[in-house]
Amino acid sequence: MAFECDKCGLCCKNIRFSSLSAELDRGDGVCKHLTEENLCEIYSERPIFCNVEAYYDKNLSETMSREEFYKMNKSVCERLKKGNL
Ligand code: SF4
Ligand code: SF4
Fold first, then answer.
1. Domain ranges for the chain
2. Is 8 in the pocket of ligand 2 (CB under 6 A)?
3. Which of 20, 79, 84 is nearest to 55 (CA)?
């Protein structure tokens, strides 16, 4: 089961919440790899922090269920959409 992302780009536009913000922030809170079309220009090589499936497989598969981790991520997406983060 893949994580459902509607490609709104809000996580990439709020990079201050990322542990990689110092590396990715282009200076205004937006990731330097986000294109004008709202796509990741390094998608196939994006950091694992940006890859929900790979992050779960590498770090959390023995700690929580995949569904639980997806749900946690989805709740962050929803809070970003509501401007509540
Ligand atoms: S905020 Fe959530 S739905 Fe929007 S692009 Fe990021 S992961 Fe996808
Ligand atoms: S590297 Fe790509 S997926 Fe990660 S925050 Fe930047 S634009 Fe988004």
1. 10-81
2. no
3. 20
The pLDDT tens digits of the residues spanning 4-44 come to 999 999 999 999 877 778 899 999 999 999 999 999 999 99
10 alpha carbon – ligand 1 mean position (Å): 6
Task: Note the helical H segments in the chain.
Answer: 10-13, 21-24, 52-55, 66-81
How remote is the CA of residue 48 from the centroid of ligand 2, in Å?
A: 10
Nearest one of 6, 32, 11, 4 to 80, comparing CA atoms? 11
CA-wise closest residue to 69 among 79, 83, 55, 81: 55
Coil vs helix vs strand at 7: coil
pTM of this structure: 0.90
Which of the two residues, 22 and 50, has the higher pLDDT score? 50
